[in-house]
Amino acid sequence: xxxxxxxxxxxxxxxxxxxxxxxxxxxxxxxxxxxxxxxxxxxxxxxxxxxxxxxxxxxxxxxxxxxxxxxxxxxxxxxxxxxxxxxxxxxxxxxxxxxxxxxxxxxxxxxxxxxxxxxxxxxxxxxxxxxxxxxxxxxxxxxxxxxxxxxxxxxxxxxxxxxxxxxxxxxxxxxxxxxxxxxxxxxxxxxxxxxxxxxxxxxxxxxxxxxxxxxxxxxxxx
Amino acid sequence: xxxxxxxxxxxxxxxxxxxxxxxxxxxxxxxxxxxxxxxxxxxxxxxxxxxxxxxxxxxxxxxxxxxxxxxxxxxxxxxxxxxxxxxxxxxxxxxxxxxxxxxxxxxxxxxxxxxxxxxxxxxxxxxxxxxxxxxxxxxxxxxxxxxxxxxxxxxxxxxxxxxxxxxxxxxxxxxxxxxxxxxxxxxxxxxxxxxxxxxxxxxxxxxxxxxxxxxxxxxxxxxxxxxxxxxxxxxxxxxxxxxxxxxxxxxxxxxxxxxxxxxxxxxxxxxxxxxxxxxxxxxxxxxxxxxxxxxxxxxxxxxxxxxxxxxxxxxxxxxxxxxxxxxxxxxxxxxxxxxxxxxxxxxxxxxxxxxxxxxxxxxxxxxxxxxxxxxxxxxxxxxxxxxxxxxxxxxxxxxxxxxxxxxxxxxxxxxxxxxxxxxxxxxxxxxx
Lengths: 222, 432
Fold this sequence. Notes:
The structure holds two protein chains of two kinds. Chain A is mainly α. Chain A has helices at 49-71, 78-96, 103-124, 130-153, 158-180, 188-207, 210-219; strands at 2-4, 9-11. The two termini of chain A are 57 Å apart. In chain B, 32% of the residues lie in helices and 22% in strands. A seven-stranded mixed sheet of chain B has the order 10-9-11-13-14-8-15, sandwiched between helices. A five-stranded mixed sheet of chain B has the order 5-6-7-2-12, covered by helices on one side. In chain B, α3 (48-58) packs across α4, α7 (224-239) packs across α9 and α7 (224-239) crosses α13 (404-415). Chains A and B meet through β2 and α7 of A and β8, α13 and β15 of B. β2 (9-11) of chain A pairs parallel with β15 (421-424) of chain B, so a sheet runs across the interface.
């Protein structure tokens, strides 16, 4: 141990400077002590270099396409597509590439993001309703079926998927609601989507094991 | 049917977060970890294999630690974690963020470095008093394993320290319809200065002799916490304000364990706080003046009525039906906003865990306990105090490059005739 004559304290650290005032320590008493803390790693950063490059490229790409679109405007707002695609890309990166995210959650997020993307494409290239009439309801039905397959294969883990299963089933009701509001004029696919969603919920109610029901009880506690 | 299959079909246990814990999952992130560390320093280097065994043996007695956090539609909740907590060697700085998706989903971390065992806990799980109990059990079990000739011998069947498995939310249990204390939104003095590199925390520890400190405090008829709070106000007044008046008061946030006040044995959070401090209006305060004022404020606030009012204010919100049925995401927004309104109300946190007692036969293996509290950008320095036998450890964790406060604090202690020994984690040498 050494002594700092300005702070009037003794210092355990294996050093020549006082950690409090940085003056030189004196009166070494012969007891060399070991440092009790690991050397800290100062290279840690908020984001790694790949993330930084991607953020930079996204912002530059987005702004450039908006400006180019503005300068060469010929009636098509194609830059909206570029920006939407960049945002969709980030949604995929942030959510779907995270290895710990629940696979049913990934399906749910993909179904939502992809349908938004599709509707935007439909709008930009002159809206004629193909997205909401056909593609989006089909996408929801597909998502419903995908989750059902996962649950059948992994039925012991059903309770881990059930919240996302319900979320996707609720998505499947959206097209039929849109039909009643007149947004959709060809209801066939919407009705199929509705039936699949309804069966998914009914199946959960009838076949759901105790684990599934207790999971729902926990998730909805208030 | 084998054991694993049985586990699959057994009912998953779960419990709600206690009233105070609800805020922590909302506001915490890498830069605001809400993690504190209690450590024990032994006299011999730690053997990792034995520490892992000690942890495995400790876990069954502490169900409140054996959880992972889940998101419900209306609230977060804890669910039994079926994985196994693993120990690791301490590598990064203290009190780092505990990612609920990493670390086998556990909300605490056990690490070791040379002679020290660290327990880092996310504050939603339990408070300092719950954590120190866990650490006591873990370290006593480790000592038993490390100090017997035949290390394959059976571990003690019953817990060594006093253990309860009480999941009571004591805030709700002790809720009375009394006058409600509101949120403190008054601004206080905020310490400023250059910051250390991202995610690194400076640690300065001071070792004091418990007996001489107690004698000193007895002479002045004050408690240790009162004395330290007064020294902190004094140091800030002298070092940061240069003895000049300032428009906002220096306010010290002192967490208080509520278990003794309400006769609770909850293993969840059950603490509240008092805030003491003063607005500097003159340039000629004496230390005794500050000390008398702080001691008086402490005594006034350390009453059951004061805490009942604070509990009433918090619990009433959680009982409100309209709030209960708001989706969790909207609740989060409200809580973040409420937090933003109150977060400048304190200058520094001083937490005193008091003296730690272990059974007689373990005392000779233990050097001391210590408490480190995570710091934030708004409150860049915090102070944790624990005593064990004749050694009291004061630990300053800080995000600031300068050590003005720590320096003034320890200089004041030694000027008052106390023998101070300093140890640091080396963060301040790299900036010389």
